[in-house]
Amino acid sequence: MKTPDLTKLDTILERHEAAERSLIQVLQDVQKEYRYLPREAFEKVGRHCGVSVARVYSTATFYKAFSLVPQGEKLVRVCAGTACHVRGAGLLLDELERALSLEPGKTSPDGKITLKTVNCVGACAMAPCVMIDGEAHGNVKPGEVVTLVKGGRRDAAAD
Amino acid sequence: MQRLTSPDALEKLRAELAGKRQAIKKTVFVCCGPGCLANGSRKIADAIGLQMEKQKVDASVGYRRCTTGCHGFCEQGPLVIVQPGDIFYCKVKPSDAATIVERTVKGDELVERLLYLDPGTKQRCKAFTEIPFYAKQTRVALARIGTLDPTDLGNAIASGGYASLAKALFTMKPDQVIDLVDRSGLRGKGGGGFLTGRKWRSCVKAPGDRRYVICNGDEGDPGAFMDRATMEGDPHCVIEGMIIGAYAVGSHEGYVYVREEYPLAVEYMQLGVDEARKAGLLGDNILGSDFSFDIKISRGGGAFVCGESSALMRSVEGKVGEPRAKYIHSVERGLWDQPTVLNNVETWATVPVIVQKGVDWFRSMGTKGSPGTKAFSLSGQVRNTGLIEVPMGVTLREVIFGIGGGLFKRRTFKAVQTGGPSGGCLPEDKLDLAVDFDELTRAGSMMGSGGMIVMDDRACMVDVARYFTAFLVDESCGKCVPCREGTKQLLALLTDITHGNATEDHLARIEALAATIMQASLCALGKSAPNPVLSTLKQFRQEYLSHIEKKRCPAGVCKPLTRFVIDEETCTGCGLCLKACPVDAIRGEKKKPHTIEPSKCITCAACREVCPVDAVEVAS
Ligand SMILES: Cc1cc2nc3c(=O)[nH]c(=O)nc-3n(C[C@H](O)[C@H](O)[C@H](O)COP(=O)(O)O)c2cc1C
């Protein structure tokens, strides 16, 4: 893995109060900027928030929002909430695993796509739901999920 | 917006805004709640805006387009509402924008085909108030959602926002506010149903240098979206509630903890706080009084356990979200070990309404033990999915069949899941149960935060129990052994059952293990973790036994225990299943009964989903 360019880290830290309470918020912003938490950033983050590197590490591994390995350019999250579960989210996941040859939680070798599940995005009325880079798609059917993920349109209704 | 330095200034602004509103001829509301957004409603909002400009019915001549939070009837989304007249258009497409603007905005006609068709009366409903889904609700916390632009403080003020704050600050002493909330009998809507007034009073009595108020917007229950809809649809009612609460308990600093999976809620709450501060409704000397209070937004990191009060407070402090033992009460030693009041989003949103309308009004709704209303997110295998609010004490039947419109054609009701991973499944014979905190707990489920997931005959109760247990294994913080290891073993036992590797002994082991987990876990996550298993085991024991003894999953969900066959008599030979099958396991000629080749079948159930006559069955 090549060393990430950490110049943007300073601007992130400037935005946050130098206190322990900022730790999670700082990590959120780092994750957003780099699509993961580069190990190289931990010392600086820890110093800014006044906590040890071990504490940064434990926080980074406790919360689901953070990843220690780079995420794909496109993030596909199949909602695994209860409503989605009973309305066939499992079938969508099976279909994507098969078509992308990816297990949930993994990123494709070319770094293009990450497949994940998420515990409910709050679009339960439109179950089952798939989030592609922050955009929610409701009532997704197994036959169209791959097209949708590859950037295609599923039907005219979405025009 | 100018800084408001007195309650009079607020009222003057309100009158001014109301005057401006009167001059508006028509407003087109486009729902951009969670459901409609997932259905592409942003594109519709853009198309309507474009058409209004094109057809010259824009703001300069007294027309308005407004994007709102969740209007409620998600199933029919994307929704467009035109006022005046409560005109309700459903399943709108961007290509409908031109017609809506031309006929209903510019002209005064209805677009018949976009009106809701009542399946009962077979009539189209002109106004949403005529639709049973809405007519049977009582909206208190959700009253303004769907009627205003959540990003505009002026909208909230014009609709009565912050009037309760002014009333509390200038006509009531802090203790009177607590007394009012206490007498109203308001119970926390985050799941536990704790009396809000009592909680506030305990906080005031506790010694401390500072006091904090926190809004719990973590909403980790899978299958619940009331809090998301509230924060995204009417952030100011939450903020107003928090300021009133802070005034009552003497706090000057508050936090809103929002889960990171809700980026829009984070954005709108932050915007709401910033706008309120600019207007002098937050910060120093609120509305010119000598009370000062400010709010910070704290984004969660994606951990269900952080909805638990003590874990949430650790998370706000920047630590990992591990709960504390219960003998430390967070009202006494909460955030940074100071007295802290934590309430749920909906609880906060209800406070201003109680201050405005009083105890008698509030108590006129609901039951004696649970006064007022409760919001639910209705989802699963029910026709009318969406966001609803009803008086406490209505029956589950009324919610699911009255408001929810019942199940889909040819499907039968099997269970309703409430209370998320801490709750349980209730069967048909519990449908006449009154929905309130105590009744649901007595029946072996719980109210929870308000997720209500309807399940039909194609849901397997063992699978549902396994689903929640897997969720909890994933979400256990790992601090205490009974929860961390116990839930894991529980999952292993359940997996044995769903894979056909179980003996009858498994049920006894599950029950024994469940008792230990409930007794010995540190926080309520572990203490209630066995609920989904125990409630299904109690209500649907036969289904467990079928998995164990007959190695058959009657619902056709657990793959190793399911074999699908096509019923010769029922099959019409339409060929839909043949097309849907991803592995070519179905044979048959047009108009002749089809068959499934067992060696090829992967039990994906695609054929069963598409069959129009329910000919695909689980083999006995
Ligand atoms: C594991 C766990 C998760 C919880 N998640 C939430 C939640 O997402 N939202 C919420 O308001 N309360 C949640 N609670 C309940 C809170 O601990 C707390 O009781 C509640 O926020 C208090 O507010 P209320 O009195 O207004 O209900 C959770 C509790 C537990 C044990």
Tell me about this structure:
Chain A is α+β, with helices and mostly antiparallel strands. Chain A has helices at residues 7-14, 23-34, 42-49, 53-62, 82-86, 89-100, 145-149, and strands at 74-79, 113-118, 130-132, 135-137. A four-stranded mixed β-sheet of chain A has the order 2-1-3-4, with helices on one face. In chain A, strand 3 (130-132) and strand 4 (135-137) form a beta hairpin. With 620 residues, chain B is α/β, with parallel strands linked by helices. Chain B has five domains: 20-127, Glutaredoxin; 153-361, Rossmann fold, CATH 3.40.50; 373-456, Ubiquitin-like (UB roll); 461-549, Up-down Bundle (de novo design (two linked rop proteins)), CATH 1.20.1440; 563-618, Alpha-Beta Plaits (2-Layer Sandwich). Helix content of chain B is 40%, strand content 14%. Chain B contains 24 helices and 19 strands. Classes of the chains: A alpha+beta (159), B alpha/beta (620). The interface between A and B is large, with 50 and 67 residues. Bound molecules: flavin mononucleotide. Flavin mononucleotide binds next to strand 10 and helix 20 of chain B. The site of flavin mononucleotide (FMN) has 22 residues of chain B, from strand 10 and helix 20.
Fold topology:
The complex is a heterodimer of chains A (159) and B (620).
Chain A: H1 7-14, H2 23-34, H3 42-49, H4 53-62, E1 74-79, H5 82-86, H6 89-100, E2 113-118, E3 130-132, E4 135-137, H7 145-149
Chain B: H1 7-22, E1 26-31, H2 34-37, H3 41-54, E2 63-68, E3 80-83, E4 87-89, H4 97-106, E5 116-117, E6 124-125, H5 132-135, H6 153-158, H7 163-171, H8 174-184, H9 196-205, E7 212-217, H10 226-233, H11 235-249, E8 253-258, H12 263-278, E9 294-299, H13 309-316, E10 340-344, H14 345-363, E11 373-380, E12 386-391, H15 396-403, E13 413-418, E14 424-427, H16 437-442, E15 451-456, H17 461-475, H18 481-499, H19 505-520, H20 524-528, H21 531-539, H22 541-550, E16 564-566, H23 576-580, E17 586-587, E18 595-596, H24 606-610, E19 616-618
Parallel strand pairs in B: 1-2, 7-8, 7-10, 8-9, 11-15
Antiparallel strand pairs in B: 1-3, 3-4, 5-6, 11-12, 13-14, 13-15, 16-19, 17-18
Helix pairs in contact in B: 3-4, 7-11, 7-14, 8-9, 8-11, 8-14, 10-12, 11-14, 17-18, 17-21, 18-19, 19-21, 21-22
Bound molecules: flavin mononucleotide (FMN).
